Each structure stands twice: as structure tokens, then as C-alpha cells.
Automatic annotation (TrEMBL):
Subcellular location: Nucleus
Name used for this protein in its record: Xylanolytic transcriptional activator regulatory domain-containing protein
Keyword Iron carried by entry: no
Presence of keyword Cell membrane: no
Keywords: Metal-binding, Nucleus, Transcription, Transcription regulation
Classification lineage: Eukaryota, Fungi, Dikarya, Ascomycota, Pezizomycotina
A GO MF label: zinc ion binding
Occurrences of domain Xylanolytic transcriptional activator regulatory (ranges): 162-234
Biological process per Gene Ontology, one example term: DNA-templated transcription
Pfam families reported for this sequence: Fungal_trans (PF04082)
Region listing for Disordered, in residue ranges: 1-41
């Protein structure tokens, strides 16, 4: 094997790969004291050996590419790697993101240490290059690496630092004019990389702005570069974000792929954030049921997207199986990434737009009498899309697909809605909502094996115990639609704030099952990669904070057809365990388009239910047929 000095990627760099200094604290982005930094293994202060480096970079493209961010094409990346054209800080940032998914022995039992050390070292180099000399030419790799490191910080509980890095990534991108088409002739590969990088920064800007006081930094009106595509061989999209609105329903939108769909739903999320989370809807002169209102315009946009994307034409789990299972039975994570993410964002946008709590706050500014039929329809949509969101993410979980950092927030949004409906007057509605709530908690428990902010979300959702009367009033259509004020109900604002959910400081004095939680960063929790098989007492306490049972799910797996049902020990409880044909009389306040309701059935009877060929008139897609049962096998 070649020495690191002889390896091509570093032959053109002024700083040798073996000469990197130990990470310092000068950038201020580390919460640990210097003594903790000195305990970082020496091997994590420099790039890994060639074999481990290529292994972790391959892991990046398997589990991080299109999840949802993408900055370059895999083939182009490895060609430039071999030609020595990539900076070390970019490679280290990629390692910091991908280490949590790695099975390489180099990172065994040390994925968190590797993430922290490589992330810190990469940022120090970017900081020096970007701010040491005003005449230093900024390069696109600085935008890419800064965006990656923002995700690392945000998900590790350092959301203030993550927020700063997101802002820097935005300014870096704008200084390179990535938000517009290049004025000079560039190769198609360069143009493609510019578009991919900008839209990844755009997505992170939108996703991190889910909260009351974090407006997006990028305005849609400033985005004139063309929309990205998942298929570079077919050419680029011919539409940009500003002109796409003119072609809703036009045949031009039929050519848009899942990556462009994800961008469109991220754009819609920005409008939903301003309307519902950042309370700009209260300034709308028209009530939300008026067709001239911003609320109606956003909902119309979502419906138009549903129409031309055909996102609801095929059952989600069926689409995954038919489109993204490779011949060897493995899942093509990268190919499925934007299809999954755009579907998730669509339902999450609907959940936030029709959230019972947020909508009631919006109605407080309305002077006109609120139509009860409007309230009933809002409640119907909120519960329906909460179900669809949970179903989508549990399908991801069931098939061993990649957990992205943002899925936890989306599941928390759905879990809050289900928690409120668990206090509904109708028994069937309560039971369904309670089960969906348990599913959301279980999903968050699974995800903490990879992302350090998932445990905090699980605890926050578990500890959300609204007053029964207040919660019931939120999910009941009645006059007047007053918003009951109590501390637990007001807690919903925090539960819908991505920054608050990712902030470990809120647990300084919290005790869970006798354990003091002082910091929910990955290092303090000792939440190791799922393949390490080790957990600390604190980690165990967080697992026990929920009443659900989490089964092991392997991040690297292949999905194979099986003629045998899954054993009780390996079967993932799924939101498919509903009897959609069970007709339940509903009270007037929920008797909207709910012709039927989803009653829970015992898990072991679900196979018989679907084998009988029953359908689902609940407006949700039916479960997969019994012949499509899948089991997970380690490669």
C-alpha cells in the first residue's frame, strides 16, 4: 500500500496529510474542554489510510448522497480524488458526516470521536482560508464543506454554531454567485456542481428555519439558477424556481424528477414556516378559508404539486419496492433519497399548515366567524397527513433505509398532532392516535443510533402531556374556536422548533428514570453507532423513557423477498397494522370525509387481513400484499 505522502489527493496540497496539527479550540465550536480534546486518538487528527479513506467515502455516497444534500456526482468525485484536486478539509467534512454509518475497522467503536475530530479539523482549515486573507479566492469546496459541518454541529446539539455555519454557507454561495446561472462558459460538469451545491445550501437553510425566530436567509426571488436533476445524463431541467409557478399542471412539469420535487417542497416549507411558525399569517387581511389568502395559496401549491408529481398515485411502500430494490436485493439508498424526502416534506408541510394548535393561533386574528366545516376539514387533513408522514418514515425504517438528520423533526411534528388527537372524544380516534404516537416515539429511539439530536426529540415528545381539556378543544370543531392557554399546550411552540429540539441546554436539570441529563450531545450520551453494540446508562435511560420497544435495525442490509412471515422477534411494528375496513360512527365534530376510520388490530392478524384482499377506503394507500413480505438480511 502506498504511503499517505504518495497518495494522489494530497500531492498538490501545501499541507501534507501527515502534517496536520491536532484540532484546536480557536474556532470556538467545541463544547469540550482542552483535556477532552487531548484524548482524541492521534489517528483522527489526520486523514485515514488509503483503504479506510476510500471505504468511508464510498459509505458517504451510499448513505449520505441525496439524503437530501448532494454536492457532486460520484464518478466525477472519485476521478478528481485520484487526480489530487480535492482539498483535505472537504474530505474531512465528508468523513465527519459519514462516520456514523461506517463499518470500516478504522472507525470501529470510535465513530463519535472521529466525527468530532475530523469536523473540528476541517472547520479550522476552512476558517483559516476564508478569513485569514481578504484576497484569498473562495472555492466551491468551502461552501460544500461548511454546509456539511453545519449539519454535524446542528445534529450534535451545537445548534447555535450550526446556525452560524449555515449562514456562512449561504454567504459563501452568494459570493460565488451560485444562486444564478454562470455568466461565463463552464463545462457541464462545473455547471452541474454549482447547481447541486447551491440547492443543497438552499435546502439546509429551509430545513433549519423550522421555528419561530429563524427566518430563511435565502429568498426564492433571488434564486435564478436552474433546478437540479437526479439524472445528469439526460441533461438539466429547463425551469428555475421563480418561473415554475407559471407552469403548474403544464406538461413541462412532467419532466421534473425527485430532486426538483424536493426543492419545490423545500420552497413550500419556507412559505409554511412564515405563515404558521413565524406568525406572518396573522398579518394576512383575508381569513384562511378565503381563496385570496396566503393560506389558500399555499394549500393550492401543495395540491398542484400532488397532482403533477403523482406522489399519491402509488402506495409509498410499493413504490420503494418496485423502483429502488436492486437485483441483488439491496436498496439503492441514493436513488431513493429524494423520492423519500420529497414525499416526507409534502406530508410535513400539510401537517404544519393544518396543525390544530398553529391554526387556532392563526384564527385568533380573524374577526369573521369561523365556519365549522372549515375546522372539520382542517382536523381531517392534520390527522390524515400525520398518519401518512408516520407511514412514510416507518416504511423507511422497515426496509433499513438511511435515516436522515431531519426525519426526527418531521416525526416529532406528526407525533405532536397524534398526541393531541389522543384526547379526542371518539374512542376509535383516540386509539388510533395513541398507537401512531407510540410509533413516532419508537422511530426516534431507532434514529438515535446515528444522530445525536434524536434522543432529545424523543424525550421532549415523551414528556409532552397536554391538559386533557385543552387538547380536546384543539381537535374539536366548535364555536367559538378559542385557544385554551396552559403551559403544556404552549409547549407545542417549542416542540415545533427544530433549534429548540436540537438544543441540549434545555435538559440541564432534567432527570429521566433517575439519571441526570446534563448534555444531550453524542459524546455525553455515548450514543455509539448501532453496530458498536454498546450503550451507556444514560443512553439506556433515554430508551426507557418511552413505553415502546425498539428492535435492532441494521443500517447496512439487503432486503430479500421471503415466503415466510417475519418472526415476532424481527418484525418491525408498522403503521400498516390498521383495519381500514372497520366502520366507526364518528361524532359530528370529526365526521368530515372520514367515511371509515382506522381501528387497531392485533399484529398477528394483519397478514390474514391483507391476504383476504381487503381495501382501504380511508383515503390512505393500502398495505403491501402478503406476497411482498420482506425480511432483512445482513450482507
Amino acid at each position: 500500500m502506498r504511503s499517505m505522502e504518495d497518495y494522489p489527493p494530497f500531492s498538490k496540497r501545501k499541507t501534507s496529510s501527515t502534517g496536520l496539527s491536532a484540532p484546536s479550540d480557536k474556532s470556538g465550536d467545541s463544547p469540550e474542554p482542552s483535556s477532552a480534546i487531548n484524548t482524541v486518538p492521534r489517528k483522527f487528527t489526520q486523514l485515514p489510510p488509503v483503504s479506510a479513506l476510500r471505504s468511508i467515502l464510498s459509505t458517504y455516497f451510499q448513505h449520505c448522497q441525496n439524503q437530501p444534500y448532494v454536492y457532486f456526482r460520484e464518478e466525477s468525485f472519485f476521478r478528481r480524488l485520484d487526480n489530487g484536486e480535492l482539498p483535505q478539509y472537504l474530505l474531512m467534512a465528508m468523513i465527519a458526516i459519514a462516520a456514523r454509518f461506517s463499518t470500516d475497522p478504522f472507525f470501529e467503536s470510535k465513530t463519535l470521536e472521529a466525527t468530532e475530530a475530523y469536523g473540528r479539523t476541517a472547520w479550522n482549515e476552512i476558517f483559516d482560508k476564508a478569513f485569514a486573507d481578504d484576497h484569498h479566492l473562495l472555492e466551491i469546496h468551502a461552501v460544500q464543506a461548511t454546509n456539511m459541518l453545519a449539519v454535524v454541529d446542528f445534529t450534535a446539539g451545537r445548534h447555535h454554531l450550526g446556525w452560524v455555519k449555515i449562514g456562512l454557507a449561504v454567504r459563501f454561495a452568494q459570493s460565488l454567485q451560485l444562486n444564478s446561472e454562470p455568466r461565463v462558459a463552464l463545462s457541464y460538469e462545473e455547471e452541474d456542481e454549482r447547481r447541486l451545491t447551491f440547492w443543497s445550501v438552499y435546502m439546509l437553510d429551509r430545513l433549519s428555519s423550522c421555528g419561530a425566530f429563524r427566518p430563511p436567509a435565502i429568498s426564492d426571488t433571488d434564486c435564478s439558477t436552474l433546478l437540479p436533476t437526479d439524472n445528469p445524463d439526460v441533461g438539466c431541467n429547463t425551469l428555475d424556481l421563480r418561473t415554475l409557478g407559471e407552469f403548474y399542471g403544464d406538461d413541462k412539469t412532467d419532466d421534473l424528477d425527485s430532486f426538483a420535487h424536493t426543492i419545490l417542497m423545500a420552497s413550500a416549507l419556507g412559505r409554511v414556516e412564515r405563515q404558521m411558525l413565524q406568525k406572518q399569517g396573522c398579518n394576512d387581511p383575508y381569513p384562511p378559508w378565503d381563496s385570496r389568502s396566503d393560506f389558500a395559496a399555499i394549500y393550492s401549491m401543495l395540491l398542484s404539486f400532488e397532482g403533477y408529481s403523482k406522489i399519491t398515485d402509488v402506495m409509498f411502500s410499493e413504490a420503494i419496492i418496485s423502483r429502488y430494490i436492486l437485483p441483488d436485493g439491496s436498496i439503492d439508498h441514493a436513488a431513493a433519497g429524494h423520492f423519500v424526502f420529497s414525499t416526507m416534506l409534502y406530508h410535513m408541510n400539510q401537517c404544519l399548515l393544518h396543525h390544530p394548535f398553529l391554526l387556532r393561533k392563526r384564527l385568533e386574528s380573524c374577526r369573521a366567524r369561523v365556519p365549522l366545516s372549515f375546522l372539520r376539514e382542517i382536523l381531517r387533513r392534520s390527522l390524515e397527513h400525520a398518519y401518512q408522514l408516520i407511514f412514510t418514515l416507518r416504511t423507511v425504517q422497515k426496509h433499513g433505509m438511511t435515516f436522515t438528520s431531519f426525519y426526527g423533526y418531521a416525526m416529532t411534528v406528526a407525533g405532536v398532532i397524534c398526541r393531541l388527537f389522543a384526547y379526542h372524544d371518539d374512542e376509535a380516534t383516540r386509539n388510533t392516535a395513541k398507537q401512531l404516537y407510540e410509533y413516532s416515539l419508537e422511530f426516534l429511539e431507532r434514529g438515535q443510533a446515528f444522530w445525536g439530536h434524536y434522543p432529545g426529540m424523543a424525550i421532549a415528545l415523551k414528556n409532552f402531556n397536554p391538559d386533557a381539556t385543552s387538547a380536546r378543544s384543539l381537535v374539536t370543531a366548535a364555536h367559538p374556536p378559542e385557544l385554551s392557554r396552559d403551559s403544556n399546550t404552549e409547549m407545542i411552540d417549542n416542540l415545533l422548533d427544530y433549534g429548540w429540539l436540537s438544543d441540549p441546554a434545555r435538559y440541564k436539570s432534567m432527570t429521566v428514570d433517575g439519571f441526570q441529563i446534563s448534555d444531550l450531545s453524542p459524546k455525553s450520551l455515548h450514543v455509539d453507532n448501532v453496530q458498536d453494540g454498546t450503550n451507556s446508562a444514560t443512553h439506556t435511560a433515554i430508551l426507557n423513557a418511552s413505553s415502546t420497544t425498539a428492535n435492532t435495525i441494521e443500517p447496512t442490509s439487503r432486503v430479500m423477498p421471503s415466503s415466510k412471515p417475519l418472526s415476532p422477534q424481527r418484525e418491525n411494528v408498522s403503521s400498516e397494522h390498521f383495519d381500514f375496513d372497520s366502520h366507526t360512527p364518528l361524532p359530528d365534530e370529526l365526521n368530515m370525509d372520514f367515511i371509515t376510520h382506522a381501528d387497531l388490530v392485533p399484529e398477528d392478524s394483519w397478514s390474514d387481513f391483507i391476504a383476504a384482499g381487503k381495501t382501504t377506503p380511508f383515503s390512505f394507500p393500502p398495505p403491501a400484499p402478503s406476497t411482498a413480505m420482506w425480511t432483512q438480511m445482513m450482507e
